[in-house]
Predict the structure.
Amino acid sequence: MSNETRITKKERDTLIILGQHLNEEFPMRLVDIALEMSLKPPTALNLVKRLEKKGYLEREKGMIVLTATGISRFREVVENHRIIETLMVNNGMDLEKACLMSENIDFLIDHKSIDKIFEKLGKPTKCPHGRRIEQFHK
Ligand SMILES: [Zn+2]
């Protein structure tokens, strides 16, 4: 049930950035996160420490690496994001607005609700951006 651990919007954004850099040769460092999020390093450090406490990342010699739990939470948030924005676009919202709105919900919504929406949408395989929806958490 660790995937149901509450995170804040800022923690969500940090998780997303780390997830997006997952396949790069060198792990991210605090300065990279601070830069990418336009935050001061102490603010970024605070976010990193909070995610570390929740078990989503580990710090090693200045490198910040997502744990397996962190990776799975990242994937889940991305998945939720795509399903929610599909729902919104299907109901007449424009994509850009839907994408922004979805960022405020994708990390809060529970599995059951997202599964219901996904079923009701007819199990879409792609979001309106054309990115894959995998439903990995099922
Ligand atoms: Zn989006």
User: Anything to note?
Assistant: The chain has a mean pLDDT of 93. Helices lie at 9-20, 30-36, 41-53, 68-90, 95-103, 111-120.
